[in-house]
Amino acid sequence: MADSDNEKPHGRRTFFREAFTKIVQPVAEYLDTQIGERLPVEKALLRPPGALTEEMFLETCLRCGNCVESCPADAIQPLSSDQPNLAETPYIDPDDQPCVVCDTLECMQVCPSGALQKLSVHEIQIGLAEVNYDLCLRSNGVDCLDCVEACPIGERAIRLDSESRIEVLSVGCVGCGVCQYQCPTTPKSIVIRPIQEYMEA
Q: In CATH terms, is domain 54-123 a member of 3.30.70.20?
């Protein structure tokens, strides 16, 4: 009986999480499709850690592939694009594989052109996480902490606020994308907005 009792809280949490996701997911996917069809805006790209501003990055990057080959997490990929100025430039898609903020930050070390500046972990600003509370499981009564527990930066970047909701701290979040990768909802309840979007706003 003791083992059965210990399993109940986890079972209830899993049940409610799955039930909520099944209810919200079809609606969210429909809205996401409609918005995408009406607003065919090209998304800004998440560049590797230490990247210069987008304009300077495109002028400076040699498309050599050093950062792609050196990434221990295989998070950095060359972009396939018909636009010559974007083709083969390195980018990160958190839905496929986020930056894990590795200890050596090898991508910056092997960049020969300076397109990726050599910065400390605390100076990195790939982007900033944003939470959609309408989709967030925790904001809808499900005890989900996937993004908080997975964050490599910890409480300096993401935590629970006074109302027990997910709170992103702009002073600590580096935009690595681990939270987005771990988020169980579809579409994601937490996504990374590239830093250049903030700079252009």
A: yes
